[in-house]
């Protein structure tokens, strides 16, 4: 294989694809990336056997088509440190030679035939939705997934694709984020009757690959895996094992107190009150009265805070305690000028925040 690449373009592709490199030693070859060059294109591949990506590399001149294994960490370091506009790569099963105008690096390589395949997208059934909308859906849900949990299904994002709707759901057992948007089904593709959960790592990789808001993304679920096709990338992931909890049962069913808020001012007030929380007490008390919200926090060693915020509330007074981190996580991904509605039953029941018809966020209060 012999080809010349625009360094910045190859660096960008390498950084994106490297997210799928194995974090643990499954197979030594998985610490590398595979490059395939054809007459008019180049494809970069990375996988840890659970997650994989095929990524088109732009800005390339092919002298000799072929395949090669590129050492992951060292190639990335070379591309970062180089000041050359163009980098030339020659590689075979034994070595990789990277040259710039004033430098040259030679590294051992491996047989590209030993690298596991990452499937291409050849599905007939799938859903389509714009990249900009999908990226917003990911941003507004992924933060609510569990980092570690014996219930593995909580460590990913649930996808529901039915007819003309796409819905993403995330929860860690203490908060729940749900967002839905229109999507187009091709050839009857649906997840009806299933609970496919995509791992958080795969969702993060997908979000990083959504650049052009107008490009169309295709999503297709198989029994134990998902394939996602963007303009430049094809992302493959195994699904998280385990059944997702019946999240719809968490939504309040009683008549609630509805409180109108605005994201920006509410976000500022929550951040201010959180200053005086400490490791022992992550609690902020929210007191809703007529035309006013009072937030109070107290730490044994930090001191106390009292923040007042004018609001358009005309209903009954209600007091409830929250961990402010669970609110700021949600508020930072919303438009500061957007209206937000808080629905409360009482001080001990889940609180429901709604932003428009498409986004819901539920938080469990503190005792």
Question: Any overview of this molecule?
Answer:
The structure is a single chain. The chain has helices at residues 7-17, 72-81, 131-139, 200-208, 263-274, 324-331; strands at residues 2-6, 32-37, 42-47, 51-57, 60-64, 66-71, 86-91, 95-99, 104-108, 126-130, 156-162, 165-171, 175-182, 184-186, 197-199, 216-221, 225-229, 233-238, 257-262, 284-289, 292-299, 303-310, 318-322, 339-344, 351-355, 359-363. With 367 residues, it is of the alpha+beta class. It has three domains: 2-114, DNA Polymerase III, Chain A, domain 2; 126-247, DNA Polymerase III, subunit A, domain 2 (DNA Polymerase III, Chain A, domain 2, Roll), CATH 3.10.150.10; 252-363, DNA Polymerase III, subunit A, domain 2 (DNA Polymerase III, Chain A, domain 2). The strands form four sheets. Strands 6-2-3-4-18-17-16-10-14 form a nine-stranded antiparallel beta sheet. Strands 15-11-12-13-26-25-24-19 form an eight-stranded antiparallel beta sheet. Strands 5-1-7-8-9 form a five-stranded antiparallel beta sheet. β20 and β21 (292-299) form a beta hairpin.
Binned strand content: 35-45%
Mean pLDDT: 93
The low-confidence parts are: none
Count of beta strands? 26
User: Which percent range fits the helix content?
Assistant: 10-25%
Structural class: alpha+beta
The biggest beta sheet, please? 9 strands, antiparallel
Quaternary structure annotation: single chain
- Per CATH, the architecture of the largest domain is Roll
Radius of gyration: 25 Å
Span between termini: 64 Å
In the CATH hierarchy, what is the superfamily of the largest domain?
A: DNA Polymerase III, subunit A, domain 2
CATH class of the largest domain: Alpha Beta
- The rough form would be described as elongated
